[in-house]
Amino acid sequence: MNYRLLIQYDGTRYEGWQRQKMTGNTIQGKIEDVLSKMTGKEVEIKGASRTDAGVHAKGQAANVHLPKNYNEKYIRDYLNEYLPKDIAILEVKEVSDRFHSRLNAGQKTYVYRISTVAVRNVFERNYIYDLDQPLDVASMEKAAKYLLGEHDFQSFCAKKMKKSSVRRLDEVSFRQSRGELRITYCGSGFLYNMVRILTGTLIEVGRHERTPESVRAALAAKERAAAGYTAPAKGLCLIKVQF
User: Do 156 and 215 have their domain in common?
Assistant: First the structure.
């Protein structure tokens, strides 16, 4: 049977979503270990998004094929009992055998949080980038318009892609509140470090270190050096995956 999992996690102390040979300290690895204990067999889950080390998620999705028909509530409760307290399974739902969380994902939404005031919020320190300076949001909004639509985002990827680096970005929006700026990104998919590099580039625009028009030039260059710096992982959160 195939099950879809809705997952929430604080990524602060993990080496990212994807299972790695050199460490067991990944979100995927922790969930697979518990499911393997539950079933008595080795289990592999497939995540919708491979979030980086230190990135958080409120709505990560994954699917897993289990050797027999398990009760959905039992799977959820078993996982939540044995997983670390900074990983939670919000929902388990039986889906068709052909469902694949990554291949069937239609749109993903990320939010990046930036503190623009001098005094940091100590209770939010793991979830917000302490930039500690104001930004010209109007210029950032102007720059973001060049990013919308389907483009080759190679300049905004931290590694050379063997496959296509063309992605569709449907929304880049900004919301300011009490010394915090939140940038929301919605798109068909994102390259390695893409959201963090987009954010670093937009911050440079907001600091007047580059012009809004330079973002268009960075897209055309298809070279990592043409874009801005990579914003820290802790400010980024995967909000939802739509199918």
Answer: yes
